[in-house]
Amino acid sequence: MVECSAGSRRTAGEPWPSACPGAVHQDTLARLWQEVRWERRHFETLWRLAIDAVPLPGNSHMPLARREAPCGCCGQHGHGGAVAGAHAAAAPTPRQHHFWDCAVAKAVVAQINAHNPGPAPISQAQLWLVQAPPGFQQCVWDVVVMAALAATEHGWVRLRGTTRAAAALGIQTAAAAAPEAAVAGAVEAEPDLDKIPPTQLTPPQPCVNPVELACARAVANFWSRLMQFAQLGVPQKGWDGVDATHPILAVVNGDMLCALPQAMELEA
Predict the structure, then answer these.
(1) Report field, pTM of the whole predicted structure over 0.90
(2) Closest Cα to residue 177, out of 156, 210, 133, 208?
(3) Residue from 207, 17, 240 nearest 140 by CA
(4) Is the separation of the CB atoms in 251 and 244 below 8 Å?
(5) How many Å apart are CA 25 and CA 167, to the nearest integer?
(6) What Å distances lie between residue 237 and 95, 125, 146, CA to CA?
(7) Mean pLDDT for back-to-back runs of 10 residues, the chain (268 residues)
(8) 267: how many CB neighbours lie within 10 A of its CB?
(9) Quick one: which of 20, 98, 155, 173 could link to 104 by a disulfide (CB 3.0–4.6 Å)?
(10) How far is CA 59 from CA 15, 96, 173, 194, 227, in A?
(11) How far apart are CA 243 and CA 239, in angstroms?
């Protein structure tokens, strides 16, 4: 385990963007705390991700987390998961998997890329280190990153709880439900999903794919956070460069507008 100067832990060989953010990332976190006027719950996932303090299944430095059930999308990372023994060294770390490689994380990133005006998809470093890609103002990217990471965590927490409940009742899931319908249902039926612990979740109905449902919930949560931020109005400082053509969050006639979700394309 490698300790960064910002206090973050990095497993030797982990593909943490730019190896270790150090004092530079620490300055970024301080800037966000001072400049972004938003409810602090939206900051939490980014803060904990930076120091590897998210309770992820398989985290060896967190005794309670390492006994969690494996990831619901692939069966890896966690007590009883597929990553063990000689294969563990070659496998991605829990942080890498849950916030970049997991299907839930990919679904959220795909929403950003659907609105990305740049020539290439966003990189892991741009997301984790809050580095605005071409075409994005930094002030907007700050909000997008915090919403994306928090929504990703929300999605796989729900997935973990749903698959745990399904396993307890012996329910077998089958064909996936329509992703667009799942997004609409998640927005309408779950206005405040963050407050629902996994132990209170009910298993999915037969013929509903829990991974796609979790992806839809994460995407819905991502856009819900952005829409809530837009409703706060245009901040007084730092948003002068945001115009009506800006991706995801735009300023039109003095009002902040949020873009609309894109149709989801999930892996089979």
Answers:
(1) no
(2) 208
(3) 240
(4) yes
(5) 40
(6) 33, 26, 19
(7) 46 47 75 93 92 77 52 52 48 86 95 95 96 96 97 90 58 46 50 48 63 93 97 93 96 96 68
(8) 10
(9) 155
(10) 16, 11, 28, 22, 33
(11) 9
